[in-house]
From TrEMBL:
This is Predicted metal-dependent hydrolase, TIM-barrel fold. GO terms for molecular function: carboxy-lyase activity; hydrolase activity. Keywords: Hydrolase. It comes from the Bacteria. SUPFAM superfamilies: Metallo-dependent hydrolases. The keyword Membrane does not apply. Pfam families: Amidohydro_2. GO terms for cellular component: cytoplasm. GO terms for biological process: secondary metabolic process.
Amino acid sequence: MIFDADIHPAIRPADLLSRLPSPWRRRFELFGTRAVAPPMVYPRVRNGGMRLDSWPAGGLPGSDLDLLREQLLNDYDIGFGVLIPMQGHTFGAEEPEYAAALCRALNDAVAELFLDKEPRLRSCVCVPHESPRHAVAEIERLASDERYVQVLLPTGTSSPPGDSKYLPVYEAAAEAGLPVAFHLGGVEGHRGDGWPSFYLEQHAWYGNSTAMVVTNLICAGLFERIPTLRVVLVEGGISWAAPLMWSLDDAWALLREDVPALRHAPSACFREHFWFTTQPIEEPDDPARLVAALEHTGMTDRIVFSSDYPHWDFDSPSVALRDLPKDLRTAIMSHNGHRLYGGESR
């Protein structure tokens, strides 16, 4: 049974509007939501970065459950899929009360339009991440509904993700037994030396933003504070992880007094608390090099297949990772996802 950890639904404005209470319904009608952050205005692939065949009549890709079933769940015999509503990235950064209303409406719409109708699907708790007080309330509201299997955050938060501002969000997720998933996007999608000029630059270096999240969370000592917290890295690649661990351990041996909150080797924190999803995984000409890169992480039991449907670079479950050794591919396509989300710790 295939496990897909990254499926993107889209909620139509009308379906969101009907679930917003006053006065936020009127605000949505008059002003909408914030525009995409500056990094999202790079030259991008056409059609919103979506598969040409994924556009339903009168809607956005990912908004039609029947089409999602036809093109993904049924075609590839997906047994378990996790919805990642990317609208939550921008909704979560709105003015606090409005952001809370938007995220609540989004979560409710996903439940009614997808989860209630399709038992193979699960979803994320979308939270107003820049307003931790409201984010905690939303996590607590949905914590008892086992169809929500993680809390969603963008890699581009307004402050570094290890900032104490976000500590209540991580504490609430851990208390609920939910992993926190960082997905590419948010207010800054390409941390580094300025913004890229081309979409290719951004796409090939998604791992940059993800590595920044990992480094900041570990150095902030977050896992010393919350030893039960699990973090899922979605859509950020994997092959960079082992060299990052080598560098962090080497620097920690020399500079550990600079990070007094971090009492364990960075690589130990990494391997104990983090998980990966596969799309877009690095694909060298020689598949053996990818196998070596994955094995260097020491985390091959923490890698979960993801298709990234309905994006243009969708990975077909029937051909993705087919050059990996059979046992490793089977674990990634199925077993690892069930261990992460399937009740092992809930």
